């Protein structure tokens, strides 16, 4: 017997005047025939999902290392959660959801193993050779390091997706003189991404979806890992009042369900805040097209000032109590030593690199060889890096 029909107050909003229009895309660096079944932005999304770098995100982590547990977020699950939030926000704001989703799925492709500890170590190792920046590495992954097509390197993504990948947080022209940004400056000379302007509303949605996802999910993972206790969060802005509300309304819930319900409500509160602030800014600015977003002079998609202040205090709490917890510090220390030792060995003995990577390192100066070594290490998963280090430095790995 079927139940009563489900009702919903949701209705798809009309397309916003400042949304990107895929039929007016500025195209790809290497022209291709259009797809018969997908928009250009949907095609970009699919290429990102099918990339090698995307698959490797399943064993790259943010705070915890992959072997510490199966329930903590990896870069892959985080990227999927960011993409879900970005797509939902884009739909609700009348934007192109495929473009927002594509940028969200791509945003972490350049992260090395071991999260921020890995990035810090690679940047330190690469200081004599131009440094390391995960945003630039993401851009290099989609423009040159992926090699899946016979006619070009990279994924040959549309102008709008590439623009969103490299400047989703705002203009980046002030970074182009940094050695680590050389690859971006070089690419921009042949395919101008207008790096001095703000990105599309869709790219800004992807960026703020990242903020929403990691703030909530770090709280969730931190409590699961025993680094935080729910009671400690009761006096923290945003999450504290929500926890009080859940416990008051549902005293029957166990701690696990209280945590999950609080995180769910916090995500909803942050999304509602972004919606309200973004629509307010759009109304004030009277945006008449996507180019008006790029020349607005400030972000269109944003948290309200009050929410921004609460999030800053939440992030400080997480930094003090979770990201610098002694257990996390030990993991960071181990991770940095693993990468530092491998980097040093590959630089001094490049012949121990796999054949393909050794070939790439040949006939290069020190900076060129260092970049090859860095690319090889950055592409590793946590698990592979641990195993590779063991093979290189422990004799029992040969048994």
From TrEMBL:
Molecular-function GO terms, alphabetical: dGTPase activity
Pfam families, sorted: HD (PF01966), HD_assoc (PF13286)
This protein's UniProt keywords: Hydrolase
Superkingdom, natural source: Bacteria
Annotated region described as Disordered, given as residue ranges: 21-44
Alphabetized Gene3D superfamilies for the sequence: Hypothetical protein af1432
Feature: compositional bias, Basic and acidic residues: 29-44
HD domain boundaries: 75-215
Keyword Hydrolase applies: yes
InterPro entries per UniProt: dGTPase, dGTPase-like, dNTPase_2, HD/PDEase_dom, HD_domain, PHydrolase_assoc_dom
PANTHER family: DEOXYGUANOSINETRIPHOSPHATE TRIPHOSPHOHYDROLASE-LIKE PROTEIN, DEOXYNUCLEOSIDE TRIPHOSPHATE TRIPHOSPHOHYDROLASE
HAMAP family, A to Z: dGTPase_type2
Family recorded in the similarity comment: Belongs to the dGTPase family. Type 2 subfamily.
This protein's name: Deoxyguanosinetriphosphate triphosphohydrolase-like protein
């Amino acid at each position: 017997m079927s139940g009563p029909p489900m009702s919903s107050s949701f209705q798809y909003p009309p397309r916003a005047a400042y949304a990107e229009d895929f039929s007016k895309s500025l195209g790809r660096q290497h022209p291709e025939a259009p797809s018969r079944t997908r928009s250009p932005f949907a095609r970009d999304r699919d290429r990102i999902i099918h990339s090698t770098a995307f698959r490797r995100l399943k064993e790259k982590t943010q705070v915890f290392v992959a072997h510490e547990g199966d329930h903590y977020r990896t870069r892959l699950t985080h990227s999927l959660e960011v993409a879900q939030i970005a797509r939902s926000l884009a739909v609700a704001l009348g934007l192109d959801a495929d473009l927002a989703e594509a940028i969200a799925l791509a945003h972490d492709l350049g992260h090395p193993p071991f999260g921020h500890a890995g990035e810090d170590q690679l940047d330190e190792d690469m200081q004599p050779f131009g440094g390391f920046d995960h945003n630039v590495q993401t851009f290099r992954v989609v423009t040159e390091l992926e090699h899946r097509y016979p006619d070009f390197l990279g994924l040959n993504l549309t102008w709008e997706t590439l623009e969103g990948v490299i400047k989703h947080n705002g203009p980046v022209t002030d970074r182009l003189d940094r050695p680590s940004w050389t690859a971006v400056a070089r690419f921009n000379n042949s395919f101008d991404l207008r790096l001095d302007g703000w990105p599309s509303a869709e790219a800004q949605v992807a960026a703020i979806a990242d903020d929403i996802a990691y703030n909530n999910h770090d709280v969730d993972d931190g409590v699961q890992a025993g680094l935080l206790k729910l009671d400690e969060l009761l006096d923290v802005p945003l999450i504290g009042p929500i926890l009080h509300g859940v416990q008051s309304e549902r005293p029957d819930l166990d701690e696990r369900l209280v945590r999950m319900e609080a995180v769910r409500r916090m995500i909803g509160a942050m999304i509602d805040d972004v919606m309200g602030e973004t629509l307010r800014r759009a109304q004030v600015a009277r945006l008449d097209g996507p180019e008006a977003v790029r020349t607005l002079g400030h972000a269109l998609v944003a948290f309200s000032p009050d929410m921004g202040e609460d999030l800053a205090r939440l992030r400080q709490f997480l930094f003090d109590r979770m990201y610098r917890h002694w257990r996390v510090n030990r993991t960071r220390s181990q991770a940095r030593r693993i990468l530092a030792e491998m980097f040093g060995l590959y630089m001094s003995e490049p012949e121990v690199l796999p054949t393909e990577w050794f070939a790439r390192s040949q006939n290069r100066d020190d900076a060129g060889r260092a970049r090859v070594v860095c690319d090889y290490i950055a592409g590793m998963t946590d698990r592979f890096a641990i195993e590779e280090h063991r093979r290189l430095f422990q004799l029992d790995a040969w048994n």
